[in-house]
Automatic annotation (TrEMBL):
Lineage summary: Bacteria, Candidatus Yanofskyibacteriota
Gene3D superfamilies per UniProt: Putative methyltransferase TM0872, insert domain, Vaccinia Virus protein VP39
Name of the protein described by the UniProt record: Ribosomal RNA small subunit methyltransferase H
Entry superkingdom: Bacteria
Molecular function as annotated in GO: rRNA (cytosine-N4-)-methyltransferase activity
Catalytic activity: cytidine(1402) in 16S rRNA + S-adenosyl-L-methionine = N(4)-methylcytidine(1402) in 16S rRNA + S-adenosyl-L-homocysteine + H(+)
Location relative to the cell: Cytoplasm
Length: 303
């Protein structure tokens, strides 16, 4: 199971909202986990708010959602959970459908270990799989379509902007040249095309030479940055006064978006920031869970 990141910090900051100051009120609190995955954070929050509290967990990936739903079917906390297979961009409708005004909302952005290890959708260059990388095939654009159909300058911009890849130009040119010979349909095809576009020294570094290109393409396939903007804004709209929003991001772009939305909403007098700046995992957590190393958490409270 995916290890939940910054778990103690999430519980501390999400559950100490002004909306739910008393332990007894907290027990009846209503929380949304906008990125449920296997339910790590969801269950920990539910444990804290039981017997009367409810956590509404949202997961966009249908296969992953079904796995989680069946794993939780007989869980002792199942009665404290509402599980929804949708994108958090539809938060307003989801909350309305369930008559749910939350005391707190958590976003733990990005993807999970499950996507790399189990999805079979090409999220990792370590396996040869079809190039898709969508969380949900009913939305977004498969990466195979992006690399085979987008203009080379557009690909260069995507790889530079979202991957911060210094060889964005030569990689996009290599994509353009190679796809004329044969469409790029698998992760192995894409790695081969990147391999011929980057210098040898770049292949001997700690970070794999395809990492940044894969990340950039995944962000576009799922419109991840657009989703964060919509999701975080809507979350602030639907929170109870005094309720809290906690966002964990793993990429600089996402963290910047959250920082800017919070800044603008503070200016508008809609939120305050009970903790200024960014909360990072402790050293022991970083040692135990290497994935946590790039995590950055921000907290805001609705006025
Ligand atoms: C980092 S994981 C969350 C891990 C989770 N907190 C846990 O403890 O197991 C992010 C999850 O968000 C899901 N996701 C990504 N975009 C989403 C969206 N727009 N709406 C809902 N879920 C989304 C991914 O499929 C993934 O399962």
């Amino acid at each position: 199971m995916h290890t939940p990141v910054l778990l103690n910090e999430v519980l501390e900051y999400l559950l100490s909202a002004r909306a739910t100051p008393e332990a007894s009120a907290r027990r009846g609190g209503r929380y949304i986990d906008a990125t449920m995955n296997g339910g790590g954070h969801t269950l920990a929050i539910a444990e804290r708010v039981q017997p009367d509290g409810v956590v509404l967990g949202i997961e966009w990936d249908t296969t992953l959602f079904q796995d989680t739903e069946s794993q939780l079917a007989n869980h002792e906390l199942r009665k404290n959970l509402i599980l929804v297979n949708d994108s958090y961009v539809n938060l307003k409708k989801i909350a309305k459908d369930h008559d749910f005004q939350p005391d707190g909302i958590l976003f733990d952005l990005g993807l999970s270990s499950w996507h790399y290890e189990m999805s079979g959708r090409g999220f990792t260059f370590k396996k040869d799989e079809p190039l898709d990388m969508r969380f949900n095939p009913s939305g977004g654009v498969p990466v195979s379509e992006i690399v085979n159909l987008y203009d080379v300058p557009e690909l260069e911009q995507i790889i530079r902007d979202y991957g911060e890849e210094q060889f964005a130009r030569s990689i996009s040119e290599s994509i353009g040249l190679n796809r004329k010979k044969r469409p790029i349909m698998t992760t192995e095809d894409l790695v081969a095309v990147i391999n011929v576009a980057v210098p040898d020294w770049y292949k001997h570094r700690k970070i794999h030479f395809a990492t940044k290109t894969f990340q950039a393409l995944r962000v576009v396939a799922n419109d991840e940055l657009g989703n964060v903007v919509k999701g975080v804004r809507t979350a602030i709209d639907i929170l109870k006064p005094g309720g809290r929003i906690v966002v964990i991001s793993f990429q600089g772009h996402e963290d910047k978006i959250v920082r800017e939305i919070f800044k603008e909403q503070v200016k508008a007098g809609r939120i305050i920031q009970p903790v200024k700046g960014t909360i990072r995992p402790t050293w022991p957590e970083q040692q135990q869970n290497p994935r946590s190393r790039s995590a950055k958490m921000k907290v805001a409270e609705k006025v």
